[in-house]
Design goal:
CATH architecture of the largest domain: Orthogonal Bundle
InterPro entries: Annexin, Annexin_repeat, Annexin_repeat_CS, Annexin_sf, ANX6
CATH superfamily of the largest domain: Annexin
Number of helices: 20
Keywords: Annexin, Calcium, Calcium/phospholipid-binding, Cell projection, Cilium, Cytoplasm, Nucleus, Phospholipase A2 inhibitor, Repeat
Largest sheet: none
GO biological process, one term: animal organ development
Function: Calcium/phospholipid-binding protein which promotes membrane fusion and is involved in exocytosis. This protein regulates phospholipase A2 activity. It seems to bind from two to four calcium ions with high affinity.
Structural class: mainly alpha
Helix content: over 70%
CATH topology of the largest domain: Annexin V, domain 1
Number of domains: 4
Strand content: under 5%
Distance between the termini: 19 Å
Pfam families: Annexin
């Protein structure tokens, strides 16, 4: 359900040459770079990088960084990295230096599949020769940290066989861990929301609503706080509907004054080959305007053109 697909009749060395020519001499042909890169799939872009290296003995990403600037550069470079390396770079940036970008950690770790998490951990190790879990643990604290560590294991159950008894038990355990308890048993929330399959948890949420009279989200808001609360809400949203979670993140990134460009870039790049069409659909229904139009109104220049190519079409 992605908006970006493999380019037909793809030729890596031809593309490498076209990019080389677009960057040769004084100034660069940004339009040519943009058109080429946004119309190739990630797998193809990686091959172009390899061809570029063998043809010119140079690193394409380094050349693009040198030629381009600002948000446009960030977007294009992000497209050139394999998804797991892109995620690794985002997380590295989120925990480097003073302060932590918790929103970035939450967004990536709450939304990725087991396989994507395993790939991310391996890519992080490969790129930075560091252990992702150790770095996250060193940079976060409390229940927020514990839940991130659970998500980093990538051990969410994946079977779709659902036991009704377990659904009822989990719903009851969550109710007893929160609403019916003085104080909150966070460990129960972490265990159930961090480990059970999506299919199972959707039924648990239905059952929870039935026995408590309120949606699980409302209980989480009442029982948990801070980044831990935000993380758990993100996990619940992704379990209910990942495209809806991302549609909401995109809307918030562009709503009001100023644009959260890092969020916008990260989501448009990471979802362009996975579920961009679903995200667009949810966005259109939920906000009564197309994602395409909102990007168009909110951004400018080559940066805007590249984002619109990744969006893949207008749903107005």
């Amino acid at each position: 359900r992605g908006s970006v697909k493999d380019f037909p009749g793809f030729d890596a060395s031809q593309d490498a040459e076209a990019l080389y020519n677009a960057m040769k001499g004084f100034g660069s042909d940004k339009e040519a770079i943009l058109d080429l890169i946004t119309s190739r799939s990630n797998k193809q872009r990686v091959e172009i990088c390899q061809s570029y290296k063998s043809l010119y003995g140079k690193d394409l990403i380094a050349d693009l960084k040198y030629e381009l600037t600002g948000k446009f550069e960030r977007l294009i470079v992000s497209l050139m990295r394999p998804p797991a390396y892109s995620d690794a770079k985002e997380i590295k940036d989120a925990i480097a230096g003073v302060g932590t970008d918790e929103k970035c950690l939450i967004e990536i770790l709450a939304s990725r599949t087991n396989q994507e998490i395993h790939d991310l951990v391996a890519a992080y190790k490969d790129a930075y020769e560091r252990d992702l879990e150790a770095d996250v643990v060193g940079d976060t604290s409390g229940h927020f940290k514990k839940m991130l560590v659970v998500l980093l294991q990538g051990t969410r159950e994946e079977d779709d066989v659902v036991s009704e008894d377990l659904v009822e038990q989990d719903a009851k355990d969550l109710l007893e861990a929160g609403e019916l308890k003085w104080g909150t048993d966070e460990a129960q929330f972490i265990y159930i929301l961090g480990r059970r399959s999506k299919q199972h948890l959707r039924l648990v949420f239905d059952e929870y609503l039935k026995i408590s009279g309120k949606p699980i989200e409302r209980s989480i808001r009442g029982e948990l706080s801070g980044d831990f609360e935000k993380l758990m809400l993100a996990v619940v949203k992704c379990i209910r509907s990942t495209p809806e979670y991302f549609a909401e993140r995109l809307y918030k990134a562009m709503k009001g004054l100023g644009t959260r460009d890092n969020t916008l870039i990260r989501i448009m790049v990471s979802r362009s080959e996975i579920d961009m069409l679903d995200i667009r659909e949810v966005f259109r229904t939920k906000y009564e305007k197309s994602l395409y139009n909102m990007i168009k109104e909110d951004t400018s220049g080559e940066y805007k053109k590249a984002l619109l190519k990744l969006c893949g079409g207008d749903d107005e």
